[in-house]
Backbone:
């Protein structure tokens, strides 16, 4: 019996060992080959790192293969190509993230005298992501007049954020990036008009060109059917926004604020059924009233039209916009009463700005029940009557409840409304008294006797 057990144990041990060895062999076969980064590409990485921060001894800190033990912000990948001579595998840099963002993304930090290394555009043919964050903030740094044609053939994300000293024509940045998904150039020194060829980049899902010095009209965009974010805010763009904007049917965010767009807000915006964020504030749209097509945009969560002289009354469209959380209608020349539905239907309203208009009448009582509101600005109108906001409401919002500039509006002390619940009728009250009150007395009597 003991011999049988020993034999069984040895058999199990053999099977386990064989399985383990086979597994290790399979893991070794699946493991990426031990390849080193090409010396010229490694040198280019060193040069790029030196250009953004020459005070750091990159070659001393990272003397070995940069793909085997790279600094934060340098990412590599393996590539396999089949040829007549068999399978050839190589390793290349695929991502460069430069500029310290936070402790969670510790990219190589840039210095105040960062420069733009020309090898960046000629030595990385497999680059998928290029990211610069607050790297060019000191001396003026110029873009190349044109990016070499070979650069960016596989680029998916091009991101320059907060580089005010990086100047040049924006058209120089936008190359033939057929696979580009994200184009984010915000807070830089780019100028000139947005090139028409941007509409050829049909893979784009985000275009953010905010806070530059761009001029000219609205870019051709009708072919960008995959676009989800279009942000051209804080530039000097002008002219009319075209009806073709309605062709961007996948759009979730549209921000054209702080430009010089004029004329009518295109009705094509109403075709953007997936749109959640709309900001057209501080342009020159005018004299057509608040667009009624907003009621046809069921997913809209935030709408900002402030600073446009649209005039007219606030329309009764809010019953179709239950999910609205932010409304910015300041300085629009609005007149008339505030619709009660504006405070009753949007249950999640957090931000409401109707200041500096010509609104009159009373503030709807429904506004006093906006439990998620954290800022309400009704300043500088002609509102009258009593303020509907209770003491606890005013205490909760504090200084973000703005009512000044309405000389005939009276802010009086209002106690909190009673807790919500069905009120007892007089007959129900009598039944409650006749049944429950004697029962309470019986319970008290029992307790006292004990």
Residues:
């Amino acid at each position: 019996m003991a011999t049988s057990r020993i034999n069984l144990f040895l058999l199990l041990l053999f099977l386990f060992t064989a399985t383990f060895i086979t597994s290790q062999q399979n893991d070794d076969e699946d493991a990426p080959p031990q390849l080193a980064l090409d010396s010229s590409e490694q040198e280019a990485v060193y040069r790029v790192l030196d250009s953004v921060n020459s005070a750091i001894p990159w070659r001393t800190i990272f003397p070995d293969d940069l793909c085997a033990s790279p600094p934060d912000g340098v990412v590599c990948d393996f590539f396999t190509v089949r040829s007549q001579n068999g399978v050839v595998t190589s390793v290349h840099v695929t991502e460069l993230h430069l500029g310290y963002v936070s402790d969670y993304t510790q990219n190589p930090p840039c210095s105040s005298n960062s420069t733009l290394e020309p090898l960046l555009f000629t030595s990385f043919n497999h680059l998928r992501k290029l990211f610069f964050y607050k790297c060019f903030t000191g001396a003026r740094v110029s873009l190349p007049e044109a990016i070499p044609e070979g650069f960016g053939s596989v680029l998916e994300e091009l991101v320059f954020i907060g580089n005010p000293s990086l100047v040049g024509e924006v058209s120089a940045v936008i190359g033939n990036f057929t696979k580009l998904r994200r184009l984010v150039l915000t807070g830089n020194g780019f100028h000139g008009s947005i090139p028409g060829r941007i509409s050829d980049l049909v893979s784009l899902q985000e275009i953010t060109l905010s806070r530059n010095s761009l001029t000219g009209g609205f870019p051709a965009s009708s072919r960008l059917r995959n676009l989800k974010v279009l942000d051209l805010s804080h530039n000097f763009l002008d002219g009319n926004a075209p009806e073709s904007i309605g062709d961007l049917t996948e759009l979730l965010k549209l921000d054209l604020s702080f430009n010089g767009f004029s004329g009518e807000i295109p009705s094509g915006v109403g075709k953007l059924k997936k749109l959640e964020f709309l900001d057209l504030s501080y342009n020159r749209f005018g004299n057509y009233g608040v667009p009624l097509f907003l009621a046809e945009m069921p997913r809209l969560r935030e709408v900002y039209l402030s600073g446009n002289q649209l005039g007219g009354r606030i329309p009764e469209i809010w019953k179709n916009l239950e999910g609205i959380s932010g409304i910015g209608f300041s300085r629009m020349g609005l007149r008339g009463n505030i619709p009660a539905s504006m405070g009753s239907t949007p249950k999640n309203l957090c931000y409401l700005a109707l200041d500096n208009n010509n609104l009159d009448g009373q503030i709807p009582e429904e506004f006093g029940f906006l439990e998620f509101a954290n800022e309400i600005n009704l300043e500088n109108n002609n509102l009258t009557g009593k303020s509907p906001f209770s003491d606890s409401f005013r205490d909760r919002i504090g200084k973000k409840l703005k009512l000044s500039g309405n000389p005939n509006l009276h802010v009086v002390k209002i106690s909190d409304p009673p807790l919500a619940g069905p009120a007892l009728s007089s007959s129900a009250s009598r039944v409650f008294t006749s049944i429950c009150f004697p029962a309470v007395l019986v319970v008290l009597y029992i307790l006292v006797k004990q």
Notes: The radius of gyration is 33 Å.
